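Module 6 notes. Inverse folding takes a fixed backbone as the condition and produces residue identities as the prediction. Think of it as a translation problem where the source language is geometry and the target language is the twenty amino acids. Below is one complete input and output pair. Work through it position by position during the lab.
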């Protein structure tokens, strides 16, 4: 039985984290960040673009590779990887959420994010390509588009969209100058 503590806004106050893991270093993560009350803010292209722009800025600032992200209507999926021994996942997420939240509040007078985020530390034996494929094909599964190419709110900062799609079709190897620390 799983017990979640819920706040008044009906979201989990803090998803469980690994007890003996410090979230520092060259690890790979599958992340999900949900909008406040799961409101579909990312249907607005300006708000979805804000997410991509800030992911790029925060990932550069905190030495985090963004292998793929998708801004779905009410949440964002990210496959990210630390690039240095002292890369701090929490500092990266806090910066990303604070900056996007501040800009959203300034422009739209509302709260953008739920209080926390969901993380999964990717283990070497896990199917990394499957995680990339999950994110890229999420808009298709959600019925938003017919093909991933049609969805404008997913991207990668380590590969071109075309290169990532080719890799997922089995037409190439995973090449990443900062790794691969997690092999596909």
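Target side of the pair, the amino acids:
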């Amino acid at each position: 039985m799983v017990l979640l503590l819920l706040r008044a806004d009906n979201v989990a106050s803090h998803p469980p984290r690994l007890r003996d893991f410090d979230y520092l270093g060259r690890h790979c993560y599958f992340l999900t960040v949900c909008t406040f009350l799961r409101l579909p803010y990312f249907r607005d292209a300006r708000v979805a673009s804000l997410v991509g722009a800030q992911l790029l800025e925060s990932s550069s600032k905190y030495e985090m590779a963004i292998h793929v992200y998708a801004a779905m209507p009410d949440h964002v999926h990210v496959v990210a990887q630390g690039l240095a021994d002292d890369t701090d996942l929490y500092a990266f997420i806090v910066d990303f959420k604070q900056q996007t939240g501040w800009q959203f509040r300034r422009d739209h007078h509302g709260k953008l994010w739920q209080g926390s985020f969901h993380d999964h530390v990717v283990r070497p034996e896990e199917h990394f390509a499957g995680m990339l494929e999950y994110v890229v094909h999420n808009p298709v599964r959600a019925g938003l588009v017919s093909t991933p190419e049609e969805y404008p709110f997913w991207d990668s900062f380590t590969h071109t969209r075309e290169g990532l799609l080719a890799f997922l079709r089995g037409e190439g190897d995973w090449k990443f100058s900062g790794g691969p620390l997690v092999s596909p």
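Reference fact for the lab report: The radius of gyration is 16 Å.
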